[in-house]
Design a protein that fits this description.
alpha/beta, Rossmann fold, five-stranded parallel sheet, globular
Length: about 120
C-alpha cells in the first residue's frame, strides 16, 4: 500500500508554478489540511490575483481535510518546542497532522529537513 502524502504550501506553490519536480504529486494519493488550503489561498491572492486564488481553491478543496483541536494543540506545542526554527503555525499543523496520520509531509522548507516522516524536496 502506498503511503499518503500531506503537501504543504511550499509544495503547492511549486505545483502552481509548474515545477516538474513537484507535479508528480498530483498523481499520488495526497491530502492537504484545510488550514494549508487557507494559507495557500492567501499566498496565491498576494502573488497573483483573486481569480487565480479561486481557481486553486476550487481545484484543491476536495483534497482538504479538517484537523482536530487536538492536532491544533499539538502543533502549538511543536512550534514552541522548535521555536528557534521559526516554523509557521500552518506548517506545524500540517506536520503534526502527517505524523499522527502516518503520512509523509512533503515540503521544501529547510526547517523540516531530516525530521521524521518528511519527504524533503527542493
Amino acid at each position: 500500500m502506498d503511503v499518503k502524502r500531506c503537501l504543504d504550501t511550499y509544495a503547492l506553490m511549486e505545483i502552481a508554478q509548474q515545477n516538474p519536480e513537484f507535479e508528480v504529486y498530483l498523481d499520488v494519493d495526497f491530502v492537504i489540511t484545510d488550514i494549508t488550503l487557507a494559507e495557500f489561498y492567501g499566498v496565491i491572492l498576494r502573488v497573483y490575483d483573486e481569480k487565480t486564488a479561486e481557481y486553486w481553491f476550487r481545484k484543491l478543496e476536495g483534497y482538504a481535510v479538517s484537523v482536530s483541536k487536538e492536532i491544533l494543540k499539538e502543533a502549538v506545542k511543536f512550534r514552541h518546542e522548535n521555536r528557534k526554527a521559526n516554523i509557521s503555525f500552518f506548517d506545524a499543523v500540517g506536520y503534526v497532522f502527517s505524523l499522527v496520520s502516518g503520512y509523509y509531509f512533503v515540503t521544501g522548507d529547510k526547517e523540516f529537513k531530516g525530521l521524521k516522516n518528511v519527504e524533503f524536496k527542493k
